[in-house]
């Protein structure tokens, strides 16, 4: 028998140990008698590096879970719960929120201060910040920001009118990204860009850079899903250049406003107030600390990335469906014109509130194309779901497949059909409250929901009042979703014909 060098035995032994480790870890759900999708070595079955594939995996998991509260999956060696029952979803998001208040998102406050925003914070830091920020998103505050949004939409309309004279077919994804950038630039940073006329502004450049870095490389994205390892490596999501840019913008804005005693009734004004004045926790009867410059920047930053990307994408999918369904587009345009005529042709705050069919159309678009294919929560303690003998262990991630719920025929018959009447008040009220999750639900739902809805309503009302949208040869039919985008998005933009009315 030929002699085999000892290093080879070490390698063989190591590979054998790794194999048996994975085999044991991959038996977690089987040992507990939980339905699960068989994992594949070495990444399990949740491909976080390919978001469109993740949607396909959720389809298999959701189908597997009929009749049970949840099924099991694996992210590398980590067991993950995938919710498949609406009552269990309600328990996680609402009823037993205290057991699932964390998202399990990695952040690095020291090296990457803009990552320490409301979306990623957990525990007492999240609760304190949410309490401070909640009053800034009341209907009254939205009304005070409304003139700013209208002003941006009117300037945007002027630029778009000139643009379509020479571009009958346009990528509405890019055009709406310009609108979103201008709205958030004014409301969150107090800056004016007019990006449709000036697409190469510095803010637009850094906006693109943010989404490139959030997409990141495959290895980095994978590590961020393991918060302990990411913290050990002091991993950052955003580069020092991006951090310095946004910190500099916010610092300059604050210094200018405080020096000149300037008030604009926007989100930045509200953040400056939280920086300069104490707030009080009525529930715990304690004074809350003022916000630091870094904390102000992080909240303005997340307002930008959340409000810009999700609202512009929701508007894009709405225009896509309206181009595919011209009868619905004409019905909506008729409502917009009828209501605005009551206000001398202007899009006032009251007029926008009266456009109920517009709201139905937006909701149906969000139903068919939810920005996030899944919501994520993390068990803060051992938790036993109702009517089961299984314990979800502390630290386990719970994923809620919003896209699959939104396309479940039990709740939305013929789910691929675009039908705004699904959101008639009486029809919506008859469904389980967890059948619509585009803004999440419970105490950790989207804090900017009112602003996002308002921005989308104004933008769509302005566009449909002035333009007709039609499919073109480049329109993606059927829809193909991007593998890289952070939110559900088409692969190669959204080209539509735009006709001035």
UniProtKB/TrEMBL annotation:
Q: Which GO terms describe its cellular component?
A: endoplasmic reticulum membrane
User: Which key words tag this protein in UniProt?
Assistant: Endoplasmic reticulum, Heme, Iron, Membrane, Metal-binding, Microsome, Monooxygenase, Oxidoreductase, Transmembrane, Transmembrane helix
Per UniProt, subcellular location reads as: Endoplasmic reticulum membrane; Microsome membrane
Q: Which cofactor does it need?
A: heme
Membrane topology of this protein: Peripheral membrane protein
The molecular function terms of the Gene Ontology recorded here are: heme binding; iron ion binding; monooxygenase activity; oxidoreductase activity, acting on paired donors, with incorporation or reduction of molecular oxygen
Give the primary localization class.
Answer: endoplasmic reticulum
Where are the bilayer-spanning segments? 6-22
Q: Does the keyword Transmembrane helix apply?
A: yes
Q: Which residues bind heme?
A: 446
Q: Which Pfam families match?
A: p450 (PF00067)
Q: Which domain of life is it from?
A: Eukaryota
Query: Could you confirm whether the keyword Transmembrane helix appears in this record?
Result: yes
Give the matching Gene3D superfamilies. Cytochrome P450 (1.10.630.10)
User: InterPro entries recorded for this chain?
Assistant: Cyt_P450 (IPR001128), Cyt_P450_CS (IPR017972), Cyt_P450_E_grp-I (IPR002401), Cyt_P450_sf (IPR036396), Insect_CytP450_Detox (IPR050476)
Can you tell me which family this protein belongs to?
A: Belongs to the cytochrome P450 family.
- What this chain does, per the record? May be involved in the metabolism of insect hormones and in the breakdown of synthetic insecticides.
This chain's protein is named Cytochrome P450
């Amino acid at each position: 028998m030929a002699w085999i060098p000892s290093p080879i035995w070490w390698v063989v032994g190591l590979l054998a140990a790794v194999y048996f480790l994975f085999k044991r870890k991959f038996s977690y759900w089987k040992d507990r008698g939980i339905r699960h999708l068989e994992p594949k070595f070495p990444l399990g079955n949740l491909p976080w590096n390919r978001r469109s594939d993740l949607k396909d995996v959720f389809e298999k998991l959701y189908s597997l879970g009929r009749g049970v509260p949840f099924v099991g999956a694996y992210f590398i060696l980590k067991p993950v719960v995938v919710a498949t029952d609406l009552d269990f979803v309600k328990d996680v998001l609402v009823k037993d929120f205290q057991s699932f208040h964390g998202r399990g998102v990695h952040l690095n406050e020291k090296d990457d201060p803009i990552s320490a925003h409301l979306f990623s914070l957990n525990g007492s830091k999240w609760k304190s910040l949410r309490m401070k920020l909640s009053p800034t998103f009341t209907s009254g505050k939205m009304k005070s920001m409304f003139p700013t949004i209208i002003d941006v939409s009117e300037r945007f309309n002027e630029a778009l009118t000139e643009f379509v004279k020479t571009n009958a077919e346009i990528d509405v994804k890019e055009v709406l990204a310009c609108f979103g950038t201008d709205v958030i630039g004014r409301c969150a940073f107090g800056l004016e860009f007019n990006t449709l006329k000036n697409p190469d502004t510095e803010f637009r450049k850094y906006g693109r850079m943010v989404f490139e870095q959030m997409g990141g490389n495959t290895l980095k994205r994978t590590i961020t899903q393991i918060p302990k390892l990411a913290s050990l490596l002091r991993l950052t999501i955003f580069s020092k250049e991006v951090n310095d840019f946004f910190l500099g913008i916010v610092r300059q804005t604050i210094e200018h406003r405080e020096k000149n005693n300037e008030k604009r009734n926007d989100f930045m004004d509200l953040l400056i107030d939280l920086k300069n004045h104490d707030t009080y926790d009525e529930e715990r009867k304690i004074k809350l600390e003022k916000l630091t410059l870094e904390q102000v920047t992080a909240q303005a930053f997340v307002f930008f990335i959340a409000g810009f990307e999700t609202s512009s994408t929701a508007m894009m999918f709405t225009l896509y469906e309206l181009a595919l369904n011209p009868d619905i587009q004409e019905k909506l345009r008729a409502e917009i014109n009828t209501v605005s005529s009551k206000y001398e042709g202007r899009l006032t705050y009251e007029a926008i509130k009266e456009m109920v069919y517009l709201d139905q159309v937006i909701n149906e678009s969000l139903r068919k194309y939810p920005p996030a294919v899944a919501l994520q929560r993390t068990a803060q303690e051992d938790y036993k779901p109702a009517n089961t003998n299984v314990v979800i262990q502390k630290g386990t991630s719970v994923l809620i497949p919003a896209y699959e719920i939104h396309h479940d025929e039990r709740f939305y018959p013929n789910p691929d059909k675009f039908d705004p009447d699904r959101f008639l008040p009486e029809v919506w009220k008859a469904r389980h409250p967890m059948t619509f999750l585009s803004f999440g639900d419970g105490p950790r739902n989207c804090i900017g929901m009112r602003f996002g809805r308002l921005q989308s309503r104004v933008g769509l009302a302005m566009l449909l009042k002035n333009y007709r949208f039609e499919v073109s040869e480049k329109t993606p039919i059927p829809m193909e979703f991007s593998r890289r985008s952070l939110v559900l998005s088409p692969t190669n933009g959204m080209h539509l014909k735009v006709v001035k009315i």
